[in-house]
Amino acid sequence: MFWEQTWKIITTYWPMFLRGAGMTLFISIIGTFVGSLIGLIIGVIR
Predict the structure, then answer these.
(1) How many whole angstroms separate alpha carbon 33 and alpha carbon 45?
(2) What is the pTM of this model?
(3) Cα–Cα distance between 23 and 16 in angstroms, integer?
(4) What's the rounded Cα separation, in Å, for the pair 39 and 26?
């Protein structure tokens, strides 16, 4: 019963899961880039 419900949820909502995972990766890449850019600018100024 538990596994049937779990499988139903996974098969129903997997596109949303992939979209959320993709958005998470996108935000982390942008954050890393912006943070590196800020660090580079501060390092050059000092």
Answers:
(1) 18
(2) 0.69
(3) 10
(4) 20
Please enumerate in sequence order all residues whose Cβ is within 8 A of that of 18, keeping only pairs 6 or more positions apart, or say none.
Answer: none
Residue 23 is encoded by which pair of tokens? 């958005």
How is the chain classified by DSSP, letter by letter?
A: -HHHHHHHHHHHHHHHHHHHHHHHHHHHHHHHHHHHHHHHHHHHH-
Structure tokens at 37: 């850019």
Span 9-31, pLDDT tens digits: 989 999 999 999 999 999 999 99
CA distances from 14 to 1, 5, 9, 25, 33 (A): 20, 14, 8, 17, 29
- Residue 45 corresponds to which tokens in the numbers above? 């100024």
